[in-house]
Write a structure and sequence with these properties.
This protein has 275 residues and is an alpha+beta fold. The chain contains ten helices and eleven strands. It starts with a helix and ends with a helix. The structure holds flavin-adenine dinucleotide. Flavin-adenine dinucleotide binds next to β3, α5 and β10.
Length: 275
């Protein structure tokens, strides 16, 4: 039996895409393409069992498997490789538990970062890691790339918010790593090992994350400096004052000029008037 026949009979035809537009759409992520390849099939997993069946079938046929969240990666990790099957986790998008008392949530890998944040915000909580792709990218993809965003200087990167994982290994077995509590420290830290492993160690199917409090009162300060060196000194001064901003960004004059050009703003002019 071919890999396609095996996947189709195990999962049903609705979960195994073979049409050209889908194969093309799932061939690449947002990275430059150096060696374009199309997958043989795209599997749209809807359950842990679907992932296990796909992994087992690919292992039995010696077919490479490429895990994929939203395909927003910029390093080609989700590019198809020769003769591969792409395993999309997008349909595994349920928030399985959100516990405001424990300040934790358990999600399937295909939950979009912004959707988890919207659900947490109802309870005055947030999922802190915020890659700029947060409106599209999945928590599974964020875990696989150990994504960080503007809030990471204060709250840490993805690894700092992941407590536990459910992972399907290359033989199709399902393991659980980590703990449900912030202070769970017993045993080897396999969770940290899987975070950032880009799908090379297994397929992440479930994630237990730590939530943080949504800031109650947000103040935004813009400071303009005559040159980059004094701006850098300003950044250090904020740290020395033992103030920890949620987000701090240093923009040079070239960046300000580009932003003004794109958005029709006058950020650079305000700076020159100030200084
Ligand atoms: C506009 C834009 C802004 C971005 N901003 C940031 C940023 O600020 N910070 C940052 O860190 N990144 C950023 N990125 C990169 C990208 O969004 C992140 O890497 C994101 O975490 C990828 O998530 P995804 O769901 O799109 O994963 P994909 O791109 O689909 O996959 C990324 C990698 O993870 C693997 N993978 C995906 N899901 C799983 C899974 N369930 N189990 C195992 N492996 C899996 C894939 O095989 C691939 O290697 C940005 C990208 C864009 C396009």
């Amino acid at each position: 039996m071919s890999i396609i026949d095996e996947l189709t009979s195990a999962l049903g035809p609705a979960k195994v895409a073979l049409d050209a537009p889908t194969l093309t759409a799932y061939a690449v992520d947002q990275a430059p393409v150096l060696d374009y390849q199309q997958p043989q099939a795209v599997v749209h997993a809807e359950s842990v069992e679907d992932v296990q069946a796909t992994v087992r079938a690919c292992a039995a046929h010696g077919v490479p498997l490429v895990a994929r969240g939203a395909g927003t990666g910029v390093s080609g990790g989700a590019h198809a490789s020769k003769g591969c099957v792409v395993l999309s986790l997008e349909r595994m998008n349920r928030i399985l538990d959100l516990n405001p008392d424990d300040e934790t949530a358990v999600v399937e890998a295909g939950v979009v970062n912004a959707d988890l944040n919207a659900a947490a915000a109802v309870h005055g909580l947030m999922y802190a890691p915020d890659p700029a792709s947060f409106r599209l990218s999945t928590i599974g993809g964020n875990v696989a790339t150990n994504a960080g965003g503007l809030r990471c200087a204060k709250y840490g990167v993805t690894r700092d918010s992941v407590l536990a994982l459910d992972v399907v290994l290359a033989d199709g077995s399902l393991i659980h790593t980590g703990h449900q509590t912030f202070k769970g420290v017993a045993g080897y830290d396999l969770t940290a090992l899987f975070v950032g492993s880009e799908g090379t160690l297994g397929i992440v199917v479930g994630i237990t994350v730590r939530l943080k409090y949504l800031p109650q009162d947000v103040h935004t300060v813009a400071a303009f400096y005559p040159d980059f060196r004094s701006a850098a000194a300003g950044v250090l001064a904020v740290g020395k004052a033992r103030v920890q901003p949620a987000i701090m960004e240093l923009l040079d004059s070239g960046t300000l000029a580009q932003l003004d050009e794109i958005h029709g703003s006058d950020l650079a002019a305000r700076g020159s008037r100030c200084c």
